[in-house]
Amino acid sequence: MNPIVEISDLHVRFKGERTVHALNGVDIALAQGEVLGLLGESGSGKSVTLRALLRMLPPRRTDLKGSIRVEGRDVMTLDEDALERMRGGTVSMIFQEPMLALDPVYTIGDQIAESVVKHEGVSFAAGRQRALEMLETVRIPSPRRRLDAYPHEMSGGMRQRAMIELALACKPKVLLADEPTTALDATVQIQILLLLRELQREFGMAVIFVTHDIGVAVEISDRIAVMYAGRIVESGTLRDVVKHPSHPYTRGLLASTLHGAHRGTRLQAIPGAPPRLDQAPVGCSFSPRCSQVSSACAVETIPLSDIGNDHRVRCVLAERVLQAG
Amino acid sequence: MSEAEVLAPVSDIGGPAQPLLQVQNLSKHFTVSGGLFARKSVVRAVDDVSLSVDKGEVVGIVGESGCGKSTTARLIIGLIETDEGTILFDGETVGSAISLRELRRRVQMVFQDSYASLNPRLTIEDTIAFGPKVHGVDPEKAREHARDLLRRVGLDPAVFAARYPHELSGGQRQRVNIARALALSPRLVILDEAVSALDKSVEAQVLNLLIDLKEQFGLTYIFISHDLNVIRFISDRIVVMYLGEVVETGPVEALWDRPRHPYTQALFAAMPSLDPDHRTQKPPIAGDPPNPIDPPSGCRFHTRCAFAEPVCSSTVPKLAPTGVALHLAACHMVDPNSGHSLAGSRGPGS
Q1: Across-strand partners of A312?
Q2: Domain-located, residue B341
Q3: pLDDT tens across B193-247, in order?
Q4: Is the domain of B270 the same as that of B137?
Q5: Which of A161, A188, A214 should we substitute to test contact with B (largest number of B Cβ atoms within 10 Å)?
Q6: Looking at beta carbons, which residues of chain A come within 8 Å of B228?
Q7: Least Cα separation, residue A79 to chain B (angstroms)
Q8: 3-state secondary structure of A14
Q9: CA B13, CA B88: separation in Å to the nearest integer?
Q10: Closest partner CB to A269 (pick from B201, B276, B288)
């Protein structure tokens, strides 16, 4: 089956006072109806990947190389009109801060109606009708009343639901989710995660879900891709990556999570800090923090090796294991 | 202790059995004006909160936004004035037996935003030496002490002392904030979401550091976080807050084994599972926490509780013993005489 989103060898470099090598060769193939959890720490490039996909990065300050295809169409060559049709139409996005994503001076109903009118060319009344149906879909209590509410009149969880509704109003085939539950309270976060899981199934959408939280990634993803310093260092099915992490960074990340860690023990922290991104990386970016570093790690770019079941690892050790057979 | 020690640690007064900090019936209500014609309303941010912290103990305060955990911390250190309540430090009443200035030497705080809590125009060394200088320490000695503290928090003074906050990473800045908190040789450090903004790999480093420093300096911590994993890892005792009130408190093992309050149970059940084969299937509770302006009557959790009965909206449940030492919960199902149909089902002997 053809992937609905296909990113290959994507490089993003921000120019300006300082140069930032944000993405250094990212490949993603997202199948229809698949949920990919993009896991990484701040600066790893996960949000930049989403923004590049929608071509939302400031064009004058961004060097974009590589290829991005959505439903087989080359996103890199789309003009402004076509991009606008794609954004919120085929591909939609939800964010961490609904207050910034929603327009404060329009009611929820009007914002959703506007989006439907624009993308589907229906009347405003029909748009409002769709908005009402959608409010029911995202399980907002007393939807008819909420239609005429302004964003500031809603609680954090409600606003998040309203933003999801806005994103899904035109039945997108791909949903990009940028840490949509990070700012929420624990009891609300799990509600939103389960809602997204349900809606994803109901709509059959493909989802790229960006998060720094392994627990959240486990709740939502079919597959996981772990990012470090602008590259994917490991990817595979949820079970393979979580139960058999094979890149030293993924292993370190899982070991340093506090889940079930016991008092009185020391946490197995990864030493050091993520690298600065002002220079293009040579070799493995994680090697300065890696306990299994060798001279092989410094040479050229290390490829992703498939260690079975499409479980890919960007590490010289994985390569060696494969060659040893 | 090194020679750079300049402010002598505060001597112990009450002995080991005397709690280091006792907070009694603390309340803080904020008035909000609702606009030109709206009536004024009151946010009951902290309502009749009592807690005590033993010497050398780590007490974790957990709860969702608006539960009053940060306000409680700010009241303890006197950053905002209390409406009601007493604070005793090592048995001495704050405000009469010891001054606020004196208290702030003994109690220090580390905040979530590592950048906002540092003066951007002071070097790291000057930032750490600032407090001791205010308290009358010789500037040269204060700087020497600052460099020693930098070493102890894992930052090489030769590299970092002359740097400015913007030249540091988030993890490094938080280490500086910790060093600054220790510069006055406090006995109690309040960590308000101190690791929440850090990346996971760095969070683990800072938690390890905090545990080491506690040992080295004989510190006591109040650790405030919304992250139950962090709270469980670092705390000896946990305090769970909901809408300005303490709903449950107890030793970490007891609370984890068998939380009694339905809110605590929901909070635990809402933690992502981390096991691909056992994902969460159902949200433990629906809806958002209610607005702390005009909170629900009786038990403030009754609007979201599966076990709510008429008594829950009419009567405020008191923290009652669960039968496990030091483990208390404010739920009508714990108190055998509450009138709830499940009264006592979560109480002593249950």
Answers
A1: A235, A306
A2: no
A3: 999 888 888 899 999 999 999 999 999 999 999 989 899 999 999 999 999 999 9
A4: no
A5: A188
A6: 186
A7: 37
A8: strand
A9: 12
A10: B201
